[in-house]
Amino acid sequence: MTKGKIVKALSGFYYVEVESGQIYQCRGRGLFRKQKITPLVGDRVEIDITDNGHGFVTGISERKNELVRPPIANIDQAIIVTSAREPDFNALLLDRFLVLNEAKRIEPIIVITKMDLVKPDVKKEMETFQQMYENIGYSVVLLSFKDKEQVQQMIPYIRGKASVIAGQSGVGKSSLLNALKPGLDLKVGNISETLGRGKHTTRHVEFISLHQGYVADTPGFSSLDFREIEADELPECFPEMVERQNDCKFRGCKHFKEPKCAVKDAVDSGEIPDFRYNHYLQFLDEIQSRKPRY
């Protein structure tokens, strides 16, 4: 019995990297199908290696987290890539990604790319957003792919971690990985000018070994809805609200219509940015308007 980690899943095969660094092409046991268990990239597994050098996945360790889209497990952090231009920076979309990662207890790192394409007023605006998100407690990196030193500042975030790289199409996810690992040569999607968004260029889930860590190059998240988050869980996905919830008059305060709410006071005083609170209310309404599932 050999232990390893699934680093790639493709066409029913699981590619398992063992401690020596060798990768074995494996099939899952039929038992998994009966139990409706699907091995995922990121799973820590046990394998039986056959005489021909292939193997079978025989056991899967308990997961600390898992994502549905992309299907991946045991993620330490999400590198959320957004761009300053083409497509333009979208704080609402960024906050969606942040909430989804907070709900899964996955630490987000925010990367704003294409800083070399913006005019001074937009650069200043991006720096303001950087400051606001850093005040909340997030790590934020402003990046130009033309500046090698700026790209290198990503390495400490990646080292020793299992990361998923996420963001809408066209923001530079593949470009970032190509810049961090020259020779990787991932396909980069061109922006579709008519749609204003990129085309999906990534077809399968795979961990790329990068600076003593792993990064999953994944398809753009095809779903950013909050079907797995309940209304009373949403405040926990905003760190600036978690920080103040004990100062609210009512326990379980949803920071909406309740009196003597510390979060609303912080919005009024400018400690919490208006746009973050407005996005929270928008997400809350979306969750509360959701049709019940049976």
Ordered list of secondary-structure elements with their pairings:
Blueprint lengths: L1 E9 L2 E6 L4 E6 L1 H5 L9 E6 L5 E6 L5 E2 L4 E2 L3 E7 L7 H13 L3 E7 L6 H17 L2 E4 L5 H5 L2 H4 L3 E5 L6 H8 L10 E2 L4 E2 L6 E6 L2 E5 L21 H4 L19 H7 L5 H15 L6
Parallel strand pairs: 3-5, 8-9, 8-11, 9-10, 11-15
Antiparallel strand pairs: 1-2, 1-4, 1-14, 2-3, 4-5, 6-7, 12-13, 14-15
Pfam families: RsgA_GTPase, RsgA_N
GO molecular function: GTP binding; GTPase activity; metal ion binding; rRNA binding
InterPro entries: G_CP_dom, NA-bd_OB-fold, P-loop_NTPase, Ribosome_biogen_GTPase_RsgA, RsgA_GTPase_dom, RsgA_N
How would you explain this protein's 3D organization?
The structure is a single chain. This protein is α/β, with parallel strands linked by helices and 294 residues long. It has three domains: 2-61, Nucleic acid-binding proteins (OB fold (Dihydrolipoamide Acetyltransferase, E2P), Beta Barrel), CATH 2.40.50; 72-217, Rossmann fold; 234-288, Orthogonal Bundle (Ribonucleotide Reductase Protein R1, domain 1), CATH 1.10.40.50. The protein is built from nine helices and 15 strands. The protein has helices spanning 30-34, 91-103, 120-136, 148-152, 155-158, 173-180, 239-242, 262-268, 274-288, and strands spanning 2-10, 13-18, 23-28, 44-49, 55-60, 66-67, 72-73, 77-83, 107-113, 139-142, 162-166, 191-192, 197-198, 205-210, 213-217. The longest helix is centred in the middle third of the chain and has 17 residues, at 120-136. The radius of gyration is 21 Å and the shape is globular. It starts with a strand and ends in a 6-residue tail after the last helix. The relative contact order is 0.12.
